[in-house]
Automatic annotation (TrEMBL):
Cofactor: AMP
Protein name per Swiss-Prot or TrEMBL: Electron transfer flavoprotein small subunit
Domain of life: Bacteria
Domain Electron transfer flavoprotein alpha/beta-subunit N-terminal: 27-218
TM helices/strands, residue ranges: none
A Pfam entry, by short name: ETF
Family named by the database record: Belongs to the ETF beta-subunit/FixA family.
Length: 266
């Protein structure tokens, strides 16, 4: 089975609130000083799913793709250390300030350049924007089915059996291949790379493709966004506290009721 895993590097979700800053004019998050970006926390589960399917089949190939700056190599290297076979980095100035739909288009173009895939796996969503629409976009462009929020995946004849996470339970579905599946954190803990695997991954060459290599340069860029970002800001949270006075519990309760009635809350 030829499997492609899409991974992303994001700002560390554990960044202290005091260090999180937004440039409201540029509509961008300002990288926190001294805090390195990390692999999207849902993506190692997708890599783990790919490796388990490959191991169960006894053969296959797992290719990891990431779109981002040069530092996104670290996200690819992490997947390679887990056991993936090859890595591809999509990078370049054309990808600055693109939206989810352009991201899906770039990833789909890279998958097509690789010769296609039997299965494309992603995390359930990127924890920075938390939209979860890129897997659906990739599937639409490639013309294949998409199964989202998977907690279990197994080969089933010529297709897959996938258990999905719902708000009120679980759902088991079957899909033919090729397909796109987004993997949820309920899939389980991914394997942790050993030192030797990390060292071997560091020596592996990551292919680098730009927008021109993928034939999509004219479709990228902020000016070609389908989703317009109107504003980006840190919401201001304000709270007012008033202590209800009274000599006895009954008096306090009476004063509270009067306050609520005056505010037309009761």
């Amino acid at each position: 089975m030829n499997i492609v895993v899409c991974v992303k590097q994001i700002p560390d979700p554990e960044t202290p609130a005091a260090s999180f800053k937004v440039d409201e004019a540029a509509k961008k998050v300002i990288p926190a000083q001294g805090i390195a970006p990390v692999v999207n926390p849902y993506d190692p589960q997708a890599t783990e799913a790919a490796l388990r399917l490959k191991e169960a089949a006894g053969s296959g190939k797992v290719t990891v793709i990431s779109l981002g700056p040069d530092s996104a190599r670290d996200a690819i290297k992490h997947a390679l250390a887990m056991g993936a076979d090859e890595g591809v980095l999509i990078t370049g100035p054309e990808f600055e300030d693109i939206d989810n739909f352009q991201t899906a288009k770039a990833l789909a173009a890279a998958i097509q350049k690789l010769g296609g895939a039997d299965l494309v796996l992603t995390g359930r969503a990127a924890a920075d924007w938390d939209m979860g629409v890129v897997p659906l976009g990739i599937a639409q462009i490639l013309g294949v089915p998409c199964v989202t929020v998977a907690k279990a995946i197994e080969k089933n004849g010529a297709g897959l059996k996938v258990e999905r996470v719902l708000e009120d339970g679980f759902q088991t579905v079957e899909t033919p291949l090729p397909a796109v599946v987004s993997v949820s954190n309920e899939f389980g803990e991914p394997r942790y790379p050993q030192l030797r695997q990390i060292m071997l991954a560091a020596k592996k060459t990551v292919q680098v493709w730009g927008a021109n290599d993928l034939g999509i340069a004219g479709e990228m860029g902020k000016e070609n966004r389908a989703l317009v970002l109107e504003a980006l800001y840190v919401p201001k949270v304000e709270s007012n506290v008033e202590i209800i006075e009274g000599d006895t519990p009954e008096e306090k309760a009476r004063n509270l009721a009067q306050k609520l009635r005056a505010a037309k809350l009761i």
